[in-house]
């Protein structure tokens, strides 16, 4: 997950390429990973019919977030930024040959499709889905109703 680079001063020992502003920033990132690893993995596996591709998408997401952790934390809604990165990583894995079982993202707007995956396929309650996506529970409910209307017409 974490990228590394060779540091000549340390005799070629692998050192983390990401430098944190403080030990607190590092522990905050590690806490974020601990909190989101399982639900991110469940989401990726629900959208891809390939466990390895799902794991790759999650690992890429966390690596990218880690590299820009200070920037992510400076955003108004960090969880929404991370969710958008995860969604994009899963979509790229699907487009690059990973087998997708996710027809929802082909027929619904991305946010609506994500809500359906989280609420209906994975059984997350509205507040958990909202926390994962970095939106309010009200947005989750509105998007779910919109998705169900669209799917009823399809």
UniProtKB/TrEMBL annotation:
This is RNA polymerase sigma factor 70 region 4 type 2 domain-containing protein. It comes from Kitasatospora xanthocidica. It comes from the Bacteria.
